[in-house]
Specification:
Diaminopimelate Epimerase, Chain A, domain 1, 448 residues, six-stranded mixed β-sheet, inorganic pyrophosphatase (n-terminal core), alpha/beta, 3 domains, single chain
Length: 448
């Protein structure tokens, strides 16, 4: 492992392992999305194999309120995964033994606690190592026998979309080791969703196909135009049927304004998990649905391989996918609200803010402007932002922009250059949007 992972990171992980070995009970905190649940599952399985007692708590975000929960933790040892980068100084001030395995933008370096983040070692945590990646590296540092958990890590990698433009950095190391050990198999990608075509075309939001997604008549017509029987699955298709259906889907996506680079992202390489007997993206969706439905414990159990939890999570996923696609149809009919340098929508009635934000950005939004989604159903207002690589090339940095814009109205924000989140007081939403628009304008101007 020494030749693929930076030696300084190995040293940090070894220190983290030593810390954990010295305690009988560990409190684990993680994010509630696919990457966070994957990371928590890896840590939970690792601790279980080490004979440790533990408890897992999932947060929708790490803010001052949840930081107070961490401060009140009575246990002597804490592991935080897929969270923590924005609160390193506060965590440093605590007396507990703390291990942070995060991949978000660096705000401060740790002085006391054990902090592992790809950015600290010259590796981009947005593309080349997610929370589950860091959790897996910690797990195999604890014990080489934990390499089977690389399958769960790939659910996290898929959840954070770090495979979209091809794997890089630490994730390449995980792929090589996973393939060598027989846990991961690469599969060619396609614009056509896997599974029963009539069902999955109706449910698809990756991509969202206008007039097809969430539209039974549209799905029936598409399959008829392709000359494909309504009962077929993806695996039943001939090469000619795949070619024709892919072409019809590509035409529709191009007509609705999707960029060629986005089409290429959708037809990405897939990763089959031999132990789970499913695609990494499928497992990722199961874990994500559990976490976002408030059933994080079931998600962690599913990530640890519990068949019943996976079955229940898959049912949740299908229900969630139906809700998401119908909310996306509704959002598409309303359109996005346009400002000079951003576009935004309110998803207070749905609760799928982050997912709708990503789908909108890729499939229906102006590709030159970041997309902002907000859920005003609770206080503070939760906000998600998504960009595109073409925007980053022009100077957009959503991690910095969201952090500054949220702070300007008394909120908290941060994340990655291409995807960031935050929360702001409800009465300050309009001011936040105005400030964020000005910050994005400044970023674009300074890069020229």
């Amino acid at each position: 492992m020494e030749t693929e992972v930076p030696s300084k990171l190995l040293t940090t992980l070894s220190h983290a392992a030593d810390i954990v070995r010295g305690h009988d009970f560990i409190q684990v905190y993680s994010h509630y999305d696919a990457d966070g649940v994957s990371a928590a599952s890896i840590i939970a399985q690792t601790l279980l194999r080490e004979g440790k007692e533990f408890r897992v708590t999932l947060f929708t975000t790490l803010n001052d309120f949840n930081m107070d929960i961490i401060r009140s933790t009575k246990t002597d040892c804490i592991i935080i995964t897929d969270l923590g980068a924005s609160y390193i100084e506060q965590l440093d001030a605590m007396k507990n033994d703390i291990v942070v395995l995060d991949h978000h933008t660096i705000i401060a370096e740790a002085k006391r606690i054990c902090y592992a983040n790809p950015h600290l070692y010259g590796i981009d945590g947005m593309t080349s190592g997610c929370g589950a990646t860091m959790a897996l590296l910690f797990a195999v540092t604890m014990n080489e026998k934990n390499w089977d958990l690389v399958q769960i890590a790939f659910a996290g990698i898929a959840g954070d979309r770090q495979h979209i433009n091809g794997l890089s950095g630490l994730n390449v190391h995980l792929l090589e080791e996973g393939k060598k050990r027989g846990y991961i198999e690469e599969m060619p990608g396609s614009l056509i969703p896997s599974g029963h075509l009539k069902t999955q075309l109706f449910l698809t939001t990756d991509p969202y196909i206008r007039g097809i997604s969430g539209n039974e008549e549209g799905v029936t017509k598409l399959l008829e135009d392709a000359g494909i029987d309504q009962s077929k699955t993806y695996m039943d298709l001939t090469d000619e049927e795949k070619r024709k259906l892919s072409s019809l889907i590509a035409i529709r996506l191009t007509q609705q304004g999707m960029l060629e680079c986005s089409l290429n992202e959708i037809a990405r390489t897939r990763y089959y998990l031999t132990g789970f007997k499913m695609d990494a993206e499928y497992l990722s969706s199961v874990l994500n649905s559990c976490g976002r439905s408030g059933l994080g414990g079931m998600g962690v159990s599913a990530g640890m391989g519990d068949a019943k939890a996976i079955e229940m999570g898959a049912k949740l996923m299908n229900e969630s996918n139906h809700d998401v696609v119908m909310n996306m149809v509704d959002l598409d009919s309303k359109g996005l609200n346009q400002m000079a340098h951003l576009q935004w929508f309110d998803s207070s009635d749905s609760g799928f803010t982050g997912m709708l934000c990503g789908i909108s950005m890729q499939c229906i939004g102006d590709p030159d402007k970041p997309t902002i989604g907000m859920n005003r159903s609770k206080e503070p207002v939760n906000i998600s932002s998504r960009g595109m690589w073409v925007q980053l090339d022009k100077g957009i940095d959503l991690a910095a922009a969201m952090r500054e814009a949220c702070a300007s109205v008394g909120g908290e924000g941060g994340g990655h250059r291409i995807a960031a989140g935050g929360s702001v007081p409800g009465e300050m939403v309009d001011e936040f949007l105005k400030n964020l628009d000005a910050i994005l304008e400044r970023q674009l101007s300074s890069s020229k």
